[in-house]
Putative hydroxylase (Brevibacterium yomogidense), 263 residues
Amino acid sequence: MAPLPYDPPFGAPCWFELSSPDPDAAEGFYSELLGWRFEGAGPLGLGSAAHADGRRVAGVSAQPPGQQGPAFWSVYFRVEELSAYLAQVDEAGGQALMAIPDFDGSAGVALTSDPAGTAFGVLAYDDDRAMQSFGTAGAVHWTELFTADPTVRDFYASAFGWGFTSLTGADVASGDPDAGAAQQGYWAIEQAGNRIGGVFDASAVSIPAHWEAHIHVPDVDALEDRVRELGGDVLAAPHDSHHGRVGRFIDAQNAAFTLVTPA
């Protein structure tokens, strides 16, 4: 897959952020594991932005006082105009969970969910505030939706203009090494001439519905022991998938994340 331009097109992944009860510890973990350098703030002016090869690729932000819980990663997609997008979400059967149309005078943010209740974020902006790399080492390489209702593809086609190509029968990067053998349905997401991710039919496996992003690394197998050394653990050992060798892990704060060495 060719890297996307540094300026994500509308409908493409534009940000990947960890909400953490201990941001300093989280930054230390990912700096040691991935070589990320943290500098400046994320697109909403919160937390710290992670850089790989000098380019902004992700962020870490603190959970609000009194609302601290397990750490978790969130995927954000870029939209052109927030109010128009929210209207499309409503018409397509989704839901707006939170929306700030004018965050700082030049950006809007919303947390929305598809008709099956799977949450994801969107950002509307016209400057260089979000992800600067996609598909390159240290950056997000692939986004993936796990859902028990794969018909939600219709929702995403309406909301983002995505197309889908069936890859059923191929091994899938599901975080469950037995899922590929189960021959579950899998669809690649096509956007602006690029494959940016996939939709996995998780109806027959015990994986809760969620969005996740896969981070490009040179050798995922070599990082398995390093994750444990840093206080994390392995959810699914590295295995072959349709777009590379994939391993699923948790960090030292129990946030799940996925690493991929592209094919």
Remarks:
- Residues 137-260 form a domain with the 2,3-Dihydroxybiphenyl 1,2-Dioxygenase; domain 1 fold (CATH 3.10.180.10).
- Residues 170-183 have pLDDT under 50 and may be disordered.
- The chain has two domains: 10-123, 137-260.
- The first strand starts at residue 13 and ends at 20.
